[in-house]
Every structure is written in C-alpha cells, then in structure tokens.
Write a structure and sequence with these properties.
By secondary structure, the chain is α+β, with helices and mostly antiparallel strands. It has six helices and six strands.
C-alpha cells in the first residue's frame, strides 16, 4: 500500500490521492499542506482556514470530501478531544499517536514515548481473533500552566 511508503511527505500523500483517481488541484494540495504544517489536530474549519491563508482557499465541501477520503486511505485519523466537532491529524505509518489534552485551556500534546498499551493491544487481538487492530488513546487532565 502506498500509504506505508518509507517517506511520508506531502508529495507521497498527493501521489496516493492521485492513484485513487482524485484530481489534484491547488485547493487539495493546500489541504494536504495544511495538515503537514499542523502542530496539533485540526477541525475541518481550521484546515480550511490554514489552506486559505496559504492561498489555496478551498470551500468547506472540498475540505470535507478530501479529509474523508484521506481517512479511508489511513492518511489521517480522527482524534477524540471531547469537543463539539471532529479533529483530524495525519497518520504517518512510522509513528503512533496518543495525546494529552488539557480540560481547561484545550492544549493538545502528542505523547512522545512508546505506546503504553502496545502489548495489551497485541494480547487483545490474539485473544479475540482480531487483525489490524489499532487504537486511539487520549488522556484528559489539567496542564501545568492551568494548574499553577
């Protein structure tokens, strides 16, 4: 699968979208670029605004359809931030994505340690006969700045 290429870049993601029959326009390229430049998960509106500020100006429907296709291709995934809309981030196949979320200020931090439940995930997969098991793990609490 092309999404598991060694190099995960805007160009490799665009090539994957093109291989799925999607025409690559300036607007779609802007969406991909916005996701690569994101420092934390983004809502569809934030992706749209980021792409627009870079000169791509996609409409909401284009952002929605592009992100949905990227999610089906495992190029992006939803992140549960307990907010009123969905948030998305890229899914580099070489990385794992677990998060810390501040309930006070909304700060989202990517946990930069090996997945704390990787062994449990493998055990669960074996015990219940699941294949290609994955998970999303978010910890909710109060960050140091808000606690002080």
């Amino acid at each position: 699968m092309a999404a598991k290429e060694t190099l995960f870049s805007p160009e490799s993601v665009i090539a994957m979208l093109r291989s799925e029959g999607l025409r690559i326009t300036k607007k779609r390229s802007g969406i991909v670029q916005a996701l690569f430049e994101a420092k934390e998960p983004m809502s569809l509106q934030e992706i749209q605004a980021s792409a627009a500020s870079a000169g791509a100006s996609p409409d909401y429907a284009t952002v929605f359809r592009t992100v949905q296709l990227m999610e089906q291709l495992h190029l992006v995934h939803k992140v549960n931030l307990r907010r009123s809309c969905s948030y998305y981030e890229l899914s580099d196949p070489r990385k794992h994505y677990d998060h810390l979320v501040c309930k006070e200020c909304g700060l989202v931090l990517l946990i930069d340690i090996p997945c704390p439940i990787g062994d449990a995930e493998r055990k669960i997969a074996r015990q219940y006969g699941f294949r290609n098991l994955s998970h999303s793990l978010e910890f909710f609490g109060t960050c140091k700045s808000c606690a002080d």
